Amino acid sequence: MAEEESAQDSISFDVLIVGAGPAGLASAIQLAQLAKEHQRPFSIAVIEKSAEIGGHILSGALFDPHALNELLPNWQDTDCPVRTKVKYDDFYWLTNSQSIFSIPPLLRPKVFENHDHYIISLSELCRWLAKQAELLGVEIYPGFCADKIQFEHQRSDSVTSDNADLPIYMSTVKGITTKAMGLDKQGNKKENYQPSMLINARYTIFAEGSRGHLGKALIKQLKLDKHKQPQHFALGIKEIWQVPKQQHQQGRVVHSLGWPLSESSSTGGAFMYHLDDSHIAVGLITDLNYRNPYLSPFDEFQRLKHHPLFAQVLQNGKRIEYGARAITKGGLASLPKQSFQGGVLIGCDAGTLNMNKLKGCHTAMKSGMLAASAVYSELIRDHTHTEPCYNALFESSWLYDELHQARNTTANIHKFGQLTGAIATYLEQSLFSGRAKWQLNNNVPDHACLLPISKANKINYPKPDNQLSFDKTSSLYLASISHPDDQPCHLHLQDLQIPISQHLKAFDEPSQRYCPAGVYEVITENNQAKFQINAGNCLQCKACDIKDPSQNISWTPPESGSGPNYRKM
């Protein structure tokens, strides 16, 4: 209430970009380049909820430089932090906690190959991209959180409805409202209160990353997912280690499938990337369509590191960073319409990850570049708040070709399981080069997949040894979370009673386990179960917003600057 009443000040730009990830920054750079080339200056601004650029950015990350080559062709002659080229590329099936089967290159689709790719820190790349954007005149504002979308609703007589008695309204995006700062837990103004601000824009590009709260609102409000399959997600949990030099092979890439997720018939995969300076990026990706409510992605990751394939590299090493992030992986069949009156939805906010290549950075960048070209075409014609011609550019681009080739990959795994799904994908890619005429349906949303505990096997996880495996508390310390305690809770329950009255009995309240940060707990007070939210632990991974079986939890951004502060993720 206080936020809406105080949203009085405003500022205007030609283009506003929400989110300083690879998609948003590539879009800003492309727009600025076009404006400079044609000597048509336009005001371009990027706002980012993290206190520092890159602070909330997390990815594996294996990097295909295709989009970067197009955007900044001379990047190799600069201090760009894309420098560790892939030298060794290994793929394994983990049959159990001790054994492995090496998958030879002949049994992998060619699109899985990583030659000419790089191992990077996406946090570092985004900081570098932000500098390139600023050199071109883009204004970048970290620590500014977009809270709500400014919609204008107008009645349209040119659009027909199935029900002739109902008027049709066209919604146009006019900009956003930032989140007020300096409110206490009750919503009262503190001494450091800063009111929200209206940021008006002729065009707004949304690039918040996976499960962005504004992207979610756009899709719902504008029905951008009409006739589309449900979106699907995974949760990626990652650590950065520094290991003894003799255990490090710069440029080595390791991927694995199977154990430990296979023990619960869940799907996903693990990675271990050897960066420079004896640093190792290790992580586990758990598909969020898993069925066993007792599964804990965090604890599955801790188990993974005890497998000899990982342990022999990590032993005697030191963890230096920890984080987690949702991954949008539904593919082309789940990709919403990306353009609308007044803007474009891009990158992982829409879902442009290529599941065949297990990569999303280059596709996010390309979607941002296409959005920039589409918006620029409107600007030079002096248009405002029209719908950019994004779709035509998208369908004629290599981005569309990549996503079309990979359109059945997620569905194969969801329908047939990890091993059979991987074989189906291999055959489709090898025999038909991804051009098979069929498209599989994948219509069960991730949140609807959980079995009740009466039909699930309980999973008892071993205690951490504090050498390879650790608890959530010590892990969160490595995420450098900054979150003032006295601010409104940013995790909203539509019904406060559901976690205890429904989920506890049916699913043993699964948020206790799917959250990799210990945000949600069931505690006992006066002999009564109580649901507790530790909002200050939040890594902003969005798993709760995705996996909650009643869709009762909504993630919204906390006060600007709150959250993790990643350096090498």
UniProtKB/TrEMBL annotation:
Binds 1 [4Fe-4S] cluster. It comes from the Bacteria. GO terms for molecular function: 4 iron, 4 sulfur cluster binding; electron-transferring-flavoprotein dehydrogenase activity; metal ion binding. Keywords: Electron transport, FAD, Flavoprotein, Iron, Iron-sulfur, Membrane, Metal-binding, Oxidoreductase, Transit peptide, Transport, Ubiquinone. InterPro entries: 4Fe4S_Fe-S-bd (IPR017896), ETF-QO (IPR040156), ETF-QO/FixC_UQ-bd (IPR049398), ETF-QO/FixX_C (IPR007859), FAD/NAD-bd_sf (IPR036188). GO terms for cellular component: membrane. SUPFAM superfamilies: 4Fe-4S ferredoxins, FAD-linked reductases, C-terminal domain, FAD/NAD(P)-binding domain. It is an enzyme of class 1 (oxidoreductase). The keyword Transport applies. Its cofactor is [4Fe-4S] cluster; FAD. Residues 529-558 form the 4Fe-4S ferredoxin-type domain. It catalyses: a ubiquinone + reduced [electron-transfer flavoprotein] = a ubiquinol + oxidized [electron-transfer flavoprotein] + H(+). It is found in: Membrane. Its EC number is 1.5.5.1. PANTHER family: ELECTRON TRANSFER FLAVOPROTEIN-UBIQUINONE OXIDOREDUCTASE, ELECTRON TRANSFER FLAVOPROTEIN-UBIQUINONE OXIDOREDUCTASE, MITOCHONDRIAL. Accepts electrons from ETF and reduces ubiquinone. This is Electron transfer flavoprotein-ubiquinone oxidoreductase. It comes from Photobacterium angustum. The lineage of its organism: Bacteria, Pseudomonadati, Pseudomonadota, Gammaproteobacteria, Vibrionales.
